[in-house]
Request: fold
Amino acid sequence: MTDVLDRTTFTSKPARVRLPAGSSDHFRCLEFLEDEAGLLDDNRLADWLDVLHPDLTYQMPTRYVVYKGDGDGVAPGMFHFDEDRSTLQVKLGRLIRSDSAWAENPASRTRRFVTNVRVYPGAEDGSFDVTSSILLVRTREGMDFVTARREDTLAPIDGELKLKRRYILCDQTVLRTANLAVML
Reply:
């Protein structure tokens, strides 16, 4: 995977109707994001893999500083993460089963704060496009902070929502963390 996800789902429809906060679909998506953050904060990586859609695309492009009107500051073809479900299974499997995964041994203590959740009807039947803000606080040898906007697609499989697409736009152009071996 080398192409940036098609972001038109999130950016080119000014007349999109946002689902009201407090509606059952909004609450269902919010509950998914809260439960997902809990799985990751509790280092339950095998359980987190279970909430991923088989056709998952998970990307976090690198950012650079641009002047107003000179683009979006997303570096084409450069990513911190450019994954699908199978590559995440391999990476997380190593973290789960191996003591030699030095990037997370000892494991980081993390806390994810997910806010500003906005839910829109998705392109596929029963799916939702969800935007949110995330603050990741990571403690290991020091304390790191990562903030980002996430653009997710949640799609149902057998009545359960699964994360089908995640596009992460980090606010920082330079990450001040020793490594990024935790999921956003």
The chain has one domain: 19-170. The CA atoms of residues 121 and 128 lie 5 Å apart. The domain at 19-170 is CATH 3.10.450.50 (Nuclear Transport Factor 2; Chain: A,). The longest strand covers residues 143-157.
